[in-house]
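Researcher:
Attend to token order:
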Amino acid sequence: MRNAVIARLNKIDRSSVSDGTVLLSPEEWRVKSAEVKPDNLFIPLESAGDYIGKGNVNVYFDLELYPFFQRIKEVILADMDSKGVLRLRRTVPKNGSESALYGDLFVLSAIAGEPEDIHVRSTNREIFPYHIIVTIRFSGGKMAHAEYTLGAGEERIEIEWSGIKTIAEFDSEEMTPIKPGGHSLLPLVYGVGDILEKSRSADEAFYEQLDTYKSLLRGGGDL
């Protein structure tokens, strides 16, 4: 069985590519798709809209793949009964997109419960850089406060979980260690194996859930 993974190549740990998997940039895929003909295709969230109704397609979310987030996730799940707060700050370069917001909500909902209340505020989205602030209350009692700056500088992610008994934090720029325990030597790089393992099938249910999250995030006004 042959897998094809479409990704920004600077985000991939090349040593993680195994036999049976072809790794291509979006530009290479556009040229070679007819030649490659994979059994299963793995795509980033920002490309999901191009594959509605197509079979054997799987979608991955970058936040979920980073080693530091996997550690944060372990801490949150271990703190399951805690009504803590997750704080997330992301800088998305100008060639990025707001799909990061949808993807992050998708990933956070999987560990914190379905979003019950969302408030969105933004500056003028036609003037770069612009800023979006999202506050979320999840069904499990947990909360999230997310701040996004789009169209400015290099990619950066800061994330912090504050539970009743546990605090975990990470800053990709400062390469802050996860507390308690562990370091991420490649903070904004992930492996192909994680893409294959953690991607979601792009079926009808997936697109319905994605549309729901998009709708929830369309609210708000100017800051």
